[in-house]
Amino acid sequence: MFVTHFYENKTSVLSQLLVSLPTVEENIKIKGRKAKIVQIVQIDDSNNYHVSIIFEKVPKKQPVKEIGKKKR
Fold it and tell me: Which residues, in sequence order, are CB contacts of 2 under 8 Å at separation 6+?
């Protein structure tokens, strides 16, 4: 069992107790958001690991503007 702490830019996102460690460049889903693992660092000699991730950017939807109608 491994204690894994997921971090994005030094911000703790999630801590889990996992049976197997994820691999680098693996795509995962955390809290409903897609992320990619960048780096895995072992802390101390025990089973503590820090996993650096990058969340996928979700583009904002632009509102549709109707050209023919004007506000009066």
Answer: 17, 18, 19, 20, 21, 47, 48, 49
* Between 39 and 68, the higher pLDDT residue: 39
Main-chain dihedrals φ then ψ at residue 48, nearest 5 degrees: -95, 130
Q: Is pLDDT of 41 > 80?
A: yes
The closest of 48, 29, 46, 26 to 37, measured between CA atoms, is 26
- Residue 2 CB: number of other CB atoms within 10 A? 16
**pTM of the predicted protein model:** 0.77
Q: Phi and psi at residue 38, in whole multiples of 5°? A: -100, -40
Q: Is the pLDDT of residue 27 over 70?
A: yes
